[in-house]
Amino acid sequence: MPTLQRPLEVELELFTHRFSAIAAEMGESLQRTALSTNVRDRLDFSCGVLDPAGRLVVNAPHIPVHLGALGLCVRRVREALELAPGDAVVTNHPGFGGSHLPDVTVINPVYGRGGRLLGYVASRAHHAEIGGIRPGSMPPAARRLVEEGVVIPPVHLVRRGVARWDEIRRRLSEAVYPSRAVEENLADLDAALAANHRGVEALGRLAEIHGADTVLRFMRALENQAGRRLDVALARLGKGTYRAVETLDDGTPLAVAITIAAAAACGSTSPAPATSTPATSTPRRRWCAAPSSTSCAWSSPSRCRSTKASSPASS
After folding, report:
1. In terms of pTM, does the model score above 0.85?
2. Which CATH architecture has domain 8-222?
3. Pairing of strands 253-260, 117-126
4. Which of 290, 288, 281 shows the shortest CA–CA distance to 313?
5. Where are the domains of the chain?
6. How many other CB atoms sit within 10 Å of the CB of residue 273?
């Protein structure tokens, strides 16, 4: 009896839900196994699945500010470190796509048979305490990044299957302003690692069932669909330039402009702060979390660009 061929649109919808289920399952695992109230009760965490280029494919309905920067974080980390099978990398550095230091990201590459890269899974969780000059690690008077808390540049939490808990413990406890809750930090990192392992296994299993080429093809199809939908949404606004401005507590402006013409260009137009804590995580946080970078997440570089270059925050 011949096998019925499903339309491409139906297959894409099925794969969209398959990808989304992976991120949702990661989130459930992280929430249930984490120790801190921030993750278990406040749900201040996010999980996502990314393609081999580090572009966000799907996410569960978690924290938008995390998800808008998650792809950038994966891309910056893979530029800085090798990610081999069995690896996991941890970072909270704003210069590598982080937000503020309490938001700690764990990234795992996903490899299929023959060592083919299928993509990445990543989770980001807000730690209630990670050092700094004040408990809670969000001091408004900080003028240096280290005053906000323990700064973790991209480092291997697991290297080729071997965990490096001693190194992470040392970083948390021996920083200039060390964490006041090292054991809780380690417990939440362990939970994030477990959640990512669920994602690695699920994405790998999907590739075994349907084939790596099929999985990667539908990742690209989903990204293209999202780009088309963004184009349609922007076209409804009509041609012109749309602006919005908000200010930080110290008066620093956050200015966003979206110009719709033959091709849409959108990005943050905020000037770099002249006097406001230039060495803290605030400038990077502004750039990653601005509505422009979230809105443009699925557009191609030719359609969407930031109007201001940004360099990694200094530690």
Report:
1. no
2. 2-Layer Sandwich (3.30)
3. unpaired
4. 281
5. 8-222
6. 17
For helices 182-210 and 212-237, angle between their N-to-C axes, nearest 10 degrees: 110
CA 89 to chain centre: 13
Do the beta carbons of residue 104 and residue 127 sit within 8 Å? yes
Whether the CB-CB separation of 45 and 124 falls below 8 Å is answered with yes
Kindly give the confidence (pLDDT) of every residue in the chain, 315 residues in length, as a single tens digit, with 9 standing for 90 and above: 445 567 788 999 999 999 999 999 999 999 999 999 999 999 999 999 999 999 999 998 888 778 778 999 999 999 999 999 999 999 999 999 988 999 999 999 999 999 999 999 999 999 999 999 999 999 988 999 999 999 999 999 999 999 999 999 999 999 999 999 999 999 999 999 999 999 999 999 999 999 999 999 999 999 999 999 988 888 888 888 889 999 988 899 999 998 887 655 444 444 444 333 344 454 343 333 332 222 233 233 333 333 333 333 334
DSSP per-residue codes, 98-126: --STTEEEEEEEEE-GGG-EEEEEEEEEE
Q: Which two tokens stand for residue 196?
A: 């990512």
